[in-house]
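Quick entry between incubations.
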Amino acid sequence: MGNFSAPIAAAMKRYSADEVLPFHTPGHKQGRGAHELLHELLTAEGLRQEVSLMEELDDLHAPHSCIMEAQALAARLWHADECLFMVNGTTSAVQAMLFGTLKAGDLVMIPRNAHRSVIAGLILSGATPIFLPVDFDDEFNLPLNVSVETIARAIKKFPQARAVLLVSPNYYGVAAELQKISKLVHAAGMILLIDEAHGAHLTFCDELPPSAMEAGADLAAQSTHKILGSLTQTSMLMLRKDFIDVERVKRAASLLQTTSPNQLLLASLDIARLQMQIDGQKKICAAVELSKRLRAEIKNIFGLKVFEGINLDPTKVTVNVQGLGLTGQEAEEILRRELRVQCELSDVTNLLFLVTFADDEETISKLLDALRRLPRRTPKKILPPLLPKGITVAKLSPRETFYLPAEVVALNEAVGRVCAEEVTFYPPGIPLLMPGEEISAQVVEMIGHSQGRVIGMGDSTLATIKVVA
Ligand SMILES: Cc1ncc(COP(=O)(O)O)c(C=O)c1O
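Done. Structure below.
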């Protein structure tokens, strides 16, 4: 695959080698004026390269040189027709997918496990969501994905919908059957948008579920920073041209991004691509092998179970700690404070560990050591998280809801009203209610029984809820 270069980093080095006297932003002027703490954190060279908006560093909003080249190299590597670099996270990539393809009045299918970034995407586009239930694993208490059958049923019920958005793989690594789903969705004249925040590495190892682009999706938003080697906040939006207006998606992505993109962030995306281009296959397949070893060893530890499933990315290692009498949150706290290991997340019953290409035998052995040292406690009763079932359509679009006056009512008097806020419990982090949804008696009961931290709800005591006035 030719060209083993990083055009953005190369342009930055050329600029700094010129030793031009900076009378431009940023105000610290390549580190000269920066506080010593910032020097400590970023180093002199890091600050020297922290420049932006020079002609030779290209323009993210009208790329014509190094950014254009870097995006083209990434598109090739990830099997896309085009790729857009995103410096406002996958949040803005998800928003660009919706804003760039939908308009007011369009219906879009959204899974219950959608990330909250879809809410702004829906407000910006004006589209109305149809909510799709996700399958659930009762033994591990965790959300799986949306099944092919559910998509088929939803298409039959709402043939006029314009798009289907899915999260694949989800946080726990469970992918949807995208090859079958993309055929169904396209046959129905709809487009397929994938939040692939947790799947930037899929294309590099055959043992992983197929990537969204390879499975036939039209757009895929990837958090390069979550799994690969770019800096936090950097993502890529992959585009396939067949069924979408590429120029419109580009305009949407541009409108959603800062006009002062940090050059170090852009370079890190380019370098992460270079790293994967050089030996992505070797690195990602090695991570898969390591994760398999970790899984096999965890099975031999008393009280622990490892989640296995179909369409699973094995590098997301979900460990159920119920057998030790611990909740996932208690186990996380012990690992962090006493054993100096930090997991990716914990929920009521599980811990999630990410194995990436940065791991090796040593880090895996240390993790196993820590897991063996987790204490045993007296088991307690754990209520499984509750999830809304059924395919439902929002009463109002999130945009209409956003601009309508709202009022606060007692939760138990809210049945039949239209919700004006987001109600999400962590775990499992799946919105029970999105703005614009009618509040059912079932959901009120679920909120009453929910445990964990609530996000989006103004009243954290859960006694009241904001509804459309
Ligand atoms: C499924 C999913 N989509 C989108 C995002 C947003 O990604 P970012 O944090 O890069 O904005 C996340 C973040 O955790 C996520 O889990």
